[in-house]
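Colleagues,

For the teaching module next term, I've prepared a clean inverse folding example: a structure given as tokens, and then the sequence designed for it. I'd like students to try predicting residues themselves before seeing the answer, so please don't circulate the second half yet.
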């Protein structure tokens, strides 16, 4: 059996990518460090009902992601690697579940499940998002599970097991990232007569809508089992935020058009890389007609949600991530059409491989010239090994033709993983210290261990709390003058661009931090 036909190959490829990324970079500020800080503070407090950040209830996200971090710490002790494995784990689960859904959508097309798995992981957007300690890949899994259950009920029939699992999926989705999970499921529910003409025996459309909306309501009720007690114990402002403010605020402002309605369409070509540049995908689009039921189902899943997101002014690129399993399924079906053509895809499928070869060679030439002419001194720290590995992999994949579309898809998925690791590895080798809070955190940990009080000029996002294992809040203040006049015996963290501000205190530490610098001062009263 060819290695490409091994059903576990997509998982091994993705797992290797995740593990290597784990060693390439640290937890990144502001988002990753903030979320781990929330979990750390809940862990310290022994309060697993209300999330806290820097001593205040944290209402921006529900608790499931933090609970999963706590589970990892319970099993393996407090560390920074188990929180970073949550998103990769949900990514792998999503790949497995998407394969199951592909089998239901196209039972006569046995190559589509594995094709879709390679395509999903091959998206730069999905692969990179799967390495981030954030909520969106987890949400994507619960959306996909809900979609799978809805389709299974419509095709195979309603059972108590599927009904209860759908309710639990809705509840976990809400506890994972809020009510947005309902938006992803609602249109598939409402438009069911368009994608499923004939329901199973003993089911009518009255039964369908009654049962499905009952499951959605039960899921909401289960999520409220956390939200209502949390609202009570978290205080009035926190309760208002989690029960109403976070969602209603976005809806009320949804037509303010802070970003234009077409913003997502402008980004789509980038988000669909590399598959949008791959000739077999375009050949599949040429042969798209007639649309089968599975293709229609994917379109009903994708299009209404994108249109709703276009109307909401608070646009973020990661909001689209739960749609990428549907896009991967759609592309897998289009590519699978070409398997019926003996020569239709072979002529051009290696174009991207040779483009990457050219890119790697150009990078090596530029690096060599930079050593001579010193155009960008910062790149002297970059090891050419990253580009040499990329060049070797790209040449190896480009020279040998693929024996099947599945093999060609797997090869491109592998190449995009290597490209992602090359870019990430090279970048963090050059600028990794700017995104690493460990040095600053060690200084802050020493201050708190000696009983010192720490203040922060501006808005503090919790970026040092977990790395320093801080047990006391850091107090934000508005100005340096306020610190000098009103907070004797304390320490101050400031951020600045290039020139260090004049401060009447002793500079203890200075470090490049993202696009700026961070410094820690001791109050003059301690000198």
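(Answer key — instructors only)
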């Amino acid at each position: 059996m060819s290695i490409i036909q091994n059903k576990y190959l997509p998982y091994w490829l993705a797992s290797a990518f995740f593990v290597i990324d784990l060693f390439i970079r640290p937890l990144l500020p502001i988002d990753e460090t903030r979320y781990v800080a929330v979990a750390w503070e809940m862990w310290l407090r022994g309060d697993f009902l209300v999330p806290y950040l820097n001593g205040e209830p944290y209402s921006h996200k529900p608790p499931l992601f933090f609970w999963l971090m706590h589970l990892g710490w319970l099993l393996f002790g407090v560390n920074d690697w188990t929180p970073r494995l949550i998103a990769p784990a949900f990514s792998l689960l999503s790949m497995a579940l998407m394969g199951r859904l592909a089998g239901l959508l196209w039972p006569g097309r046995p190559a589509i499940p594995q094709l879709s798995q390679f395509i999903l992981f091959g998206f730069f957007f999905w692969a990179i998002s799967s390495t981030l300690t954030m909520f969106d890949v987890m949400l994507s899994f619960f959306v996909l599970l809900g979609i799978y259950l809805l389709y299974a009920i419509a095709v195979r029939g309603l059972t108590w097991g599927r009904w209860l699992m759908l309710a639990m999926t809705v509840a976990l989705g809400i506890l994972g990232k809020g009510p947005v999970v309902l938006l992803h499921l609602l249109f598939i529910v409402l438009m069911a007569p368009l994608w499923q003409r004939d329901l199973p025996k003993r089911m009518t459309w009255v039964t369908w809508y009654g049962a499905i909306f009952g499951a959605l309501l039960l899921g909401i009720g289960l999520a409220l089992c956390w939200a209502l007690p949390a609202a009570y114990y978290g205080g009035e402002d926190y309760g208002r935020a989690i029960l109403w403010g976070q969602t209603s605020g976005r809806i009320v402002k949804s037509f303010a058009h802070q970003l234009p309605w077409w913003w997502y369409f402008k980004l789509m070509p980038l988000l669909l890389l590399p598959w949008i540049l791959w000739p077999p995908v375009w050949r599949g689009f040429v042969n798209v007609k007639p649309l089968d039921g599975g293709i229609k189902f994917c379109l009903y899943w994708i299009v209404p949600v994108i249109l709703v997101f276009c109307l909401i002014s608070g646009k973020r690129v990661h909001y689209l991530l739960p749609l990428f399993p549907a896009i991967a399924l759609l592309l897998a079906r289009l590519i699978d059409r070409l398997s019926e053509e003996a020569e239709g895809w072979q002529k051009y499928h290696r174009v991207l491989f040779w483009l990457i070869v050219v890119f790697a060679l150009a990078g090596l030439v530029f690096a060599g010239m930079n050593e001579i002419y010193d155009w960008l001194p910062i790149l002297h720290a970059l090891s050419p090994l990253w580009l040499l590995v990329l060049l070797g992999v790209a040449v190896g994949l480009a020279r040998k033709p693929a024996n099947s579309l599945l093999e060609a898809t797997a090869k491109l998925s592998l190449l995009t993983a290597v490209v992602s690791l090359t870019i990430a590895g090279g970048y963090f080798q050059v600028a990794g210290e700017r995104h690493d809070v460990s040095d600053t955190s060690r200084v802050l940990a020493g201050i708190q261990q000696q009983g010192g009080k720490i203040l922060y000029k501006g808005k503090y996002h919790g970026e040092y709390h977990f790395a320093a294992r801080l047990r006391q809040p850091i107090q934000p203040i508005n100005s340096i003058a306020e610190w000098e006049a009103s907070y004797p015996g304390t320490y101050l963290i400031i951020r600045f661009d290039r020139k260090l501000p004049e401060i009447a205190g002793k500079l203890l530490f200075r470090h490049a931090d993202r696009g700026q610098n961070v410094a820690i001062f001791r109050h003059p009263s301690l000198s």
